[in-house]
Design a protein that fits this description.
It contains seven helices and five strands. By secondary structure, it is α/β, with parallel strands linked by helices. It has one domain (11-152): 2-Layer Sandwich (Nucleotidyltransferase, domain 5). The protein has a five-stranded mixed sheet, with helices on both faces.
Length: 199
């Protein structure tokens, strides 16, 4: 895979779970460093769950620095999902333990960091290796959380849907009502979800 050239020790940042009905939004920031094997990462959406887990372990062992930060469903309800996503991304960046000279952000919008300049890249998880690494961490950490939450609230199928608005998840909400981990600021009715999420 050919990656966009990025100077060493700049950080990539991405989030997972923005479009979910339940659970947190999780962000990760990653600095790869000069010895990192770029062939070990890829767009997280193109990897199987097993391949993502393998890549996660490689990133954790070989990245120069990484951090994962989340905002729970209650925070999302309080400040809205966009601001919670930005808060999670800033939290991940601020907990890196190193100050990168530049940030690479997946998407087209980012609330600027107080001290670090940034570049937004639409589809960046398929173009910029440090964003891809951050995407893998955010996705795998969030999936693991939702799998654990499934043991507490097994009616909603979070071990499979991870909180996204699938038909089965929506049906479970209509039958059993929302759990304490559902985002109350999101509308749960099937017709409204179809309009909001295109499902």
């Amino acid at each position: 895979m050919t990656w966009m050239p990025v100077p060493q020790y700049e950080a990539g940042c991405d989030e997972a779970g923005r479009g979910c009905l339940a659970g947190p939004v999780v962000a990760a920031a990653v600095i790869l460093g000069e010895d990192f094997d770029l062939s070990r990462v890829a767009d997280s959406k193109q990897l199987s769950a097993k391949a993502r887990d393998v890549a996660r372990h490689y990133i954790e062992e070989h990245a120069a620095a990484y951090s994962v930060f989340s905002c729970c469903n209650e925070e999302i309800d309080h400040i809205n999902i966009l601001q919670a996503s930005m808060q999670a991304m800033h939290g991940a960046i601020n907990h890196l333990g190193k100050i990168p000279p530049h940030l690479w952000i997946d998407g087209h919008y980012f609330v600027p960091h107080d001290t670090i300049p940034h570049t937004c890249v639409v589809g960046g998880d398929a173009m910029v290796a440090c964003i891809a690494a951050a995407s893998i961490l955010a996705k795998t950490y969030r999936d693991a959380l939702m799998h654990d939450y499934h043991t507490r609230y097994p009616l909603y199928g979070w071990d499979v849907n991870k909180g996204y608005p699938t038909r089965g998840h929506r049906s479970a909400i209509e039958q059993h009502g929302p759990s304490p981990l559902h985002r109350k600021s999101f509308r749960f009715k099937t017709k409204q979800l179809a309009l909001n999420f295109g499902v």
